[in-house]
Amino acid sequence: MFSCWQERAIARHEVREIEQRHTMDGPRQDAALDEEEDMVIIYNRVPKTASTSFTNIAYDLCAKNKYHVLHINTTKNNPVMSLQDQVRFVKNITSWKEMKPGFYHGHVSYLDFAKFGVKKKPIYINVIRDPIERLVSYYYFLRFGDDYRPGLRRRKQGDKKTFDECVAEGGSDCAPEKLWLQIPFFCGHSSECWNVGSRWAMDQAKYNLVNEYFLVGVTEELEDFIMLLEAALPRFFRGATELYRTGKKSHLRKTTEKKLPTKQTIAKLQQSDIWKMENEFYEFALEQFQFIRAHAVREKDGDLYILAQNFFYEKIYPKSN
Hints:
Elements (H helix, E strand, L loop, with lengths): L3 H21 L15 E4 L7 H15 L2 E4 L11 H13 L6 E4 L17 E6 L2 H14 L18 H7 L12 H6 L11 H13 L1 E6 L3 H11 L1 H4 L2 H7 L16 H7 L3 H22 L2 E4 L2 E4 L15
Parallel strand pairs: 1-3, 1-4, 2-3, 4-5
Antiparallel strand pairs: 6-7
Family: Belongs to the sulfotransferase 3 family.
InterPro entries: Heparan_SO4_2-O-STrfase (IPR007734), P-loop_NTPase (IPR027417), Sulfotransferase (IPR005331)
Subcellular location: Golgi apparatus membrane
């Protein structure tokens, strides 16, 4: 197993190799970068929302579709960057031409690039999940891990207490406050975003979801999310739907030893105002996603099909000679 500094040294070496290849190919002129080649996607993935399964599709396709994939590895998975790191991150994303087109992914809350004077902002995408299901999955993940890296020792390994028992005893790992995650991830880097139960944070998260995100899917309908991305952004996602349906990595990461909570446990959590807000945000995202899907696909014999182009241009003046 590599140490932290060894992993970073390997990563720096890989980047130098890529930059060197670009240099050998000849100088890269900014004017030659068309819109698609200058594209950057940020997937600021929420933990335990099938993010690893989706990210592995991006890794599987990157060589074939000719783009770069980069993991944003923050210290202790802290989703909030320092101000100086925000500046560095924005500069990297916008000016690192050797990494374009690029797909960045990591457990980082939304960052507004416009605040830093950036003219062309990256494309944000994300996936969210039913808040209680997400918390249950995370609870057991901390104790038993998953089938992706089964040998890795987890933080709560050895704790055999079920989620039901934790809720009944009022444990901290299953407290309603632990539900507060998807809202702040979409809200961003403002202090109020991380104030548990903040109505302002939820409103800001909704605003960002509609205005700053290209597409937000839900874990429960992940294949439809991938299908829409392939139709809208084929430069990155060409072949993604077929890969998800047939590939071995479709459900790559499954939390082991997970026990579904009882109705009593669910009812107790649903009494919390925090659950009500997180669930309201989830339902809002689900409605938005289903609205987009309804205008992009048609169902036939139980299968979904992407609609062909449904507009054209006419009455074009002045007439050419």
